[in-house]
Amino acid sequence: QKEVEQNSGPLSVPEGAIASLNCTYSDRGSQSFFWYRQYSGKSPELIMSIYSNGDKEDGRFTAQLNKASQYVSLLIRDSQPSDSATYLCAVIYSSYKLIFGSGTRLLVRP
Amino acid sequence: SQTIHQWPATLVQPVGSPLSLECTVEGTSNPNLYWYRQAAGRGLQLLFYSVGIGQISSEVPQNLSASRPQDRQFILSSKKLLLSDSGFYLCAWSIAENGYTFGSGTRLTVV
Predict the structure, then answer these.
(1) Contact by Cβ (8 Å): B47, B104
(2) Which of B97, B107, B109 is the best substitution to test chain A (most A C-beta atoms within 10 A)?
(3) Is residue A90 within 8 Å of residue A36, measured between CB atoms?
């Protein structure tokens, strides 16, 4: 059973703080990892992809990957109320199948 | 640029009625296509994926089926809907192992 685990939250942070979202996955052979943002009632939107160990930065977002420990994280710096959403971690397993975690709900308090 | 179209946006259907949801992709050739379902407050469940015309792989046994009659068209169907089929249905496409792009989704309520 291929699994992607996330804390459901909600994770509540004040505006301007750093939000840290975590994800673990079960298959050591996975090579491609993604973070999606989903606003209530909308479809998921890709915000970060990461394929190699280490950090990848894009604006206020930083994705971190540690394949040895099988975890992926997403840091959001200078969090804004507009960042309030559910963040979905996703991992590609064999045959291009993208498997999602259940998501972490983030609330940014003004 | 690539775009993905999915319709209808919302649908209310009685139990036992048939279902047909359509998804089309523009601006790319031979994409991988996917159907996901999201129950209320839950994560995304992969239902079907297709790597080419007529090639369908099912991830979850259920009363749904999928077809890919053309390269950029993916259809989700059911002959008889169940209450448990209610949810948010999302079509997605990808090339190789790049990130998947989702359509705007169909919210299905079976009554």
Answers:
(1) no
(2) B97
(3) yes
Tens of pLDDT along chain A (110 residues) come to 668 999 988 999 999 999 999 999 998 888 899 999 999 999 999 999 999 999 999 999 999 999 999 999 999 999 999 999 999 999 988 767 889 999 999 999 99
Classify A16 in phi/psi space as left (phi over 0), alpha (psi -120 to 50) or beta.
left
Closest CA to B76 of B64, B88, B92: B64
Chain B CB within 8 Å of residue A25 CB: no
**Chain-chain contact of A98 with B100 (C-beta, under 8 angstroms):** yes
Nearest alpha carbon to residue A90 among B23, B38, B55: B38
Q: How far is A58 from chain B (nearest CA, A)?
A: 15
Cα-Cα-Cα-Cα dihedral sign, residues B62, B57, A40, A81: positive
Name, in order, each residue with C-beta under 8 angstroms of A90's C-beta and a sequence gap of 6 or more: A4, A33, A34, A35, A36, A98, A99, A100, A101, B100
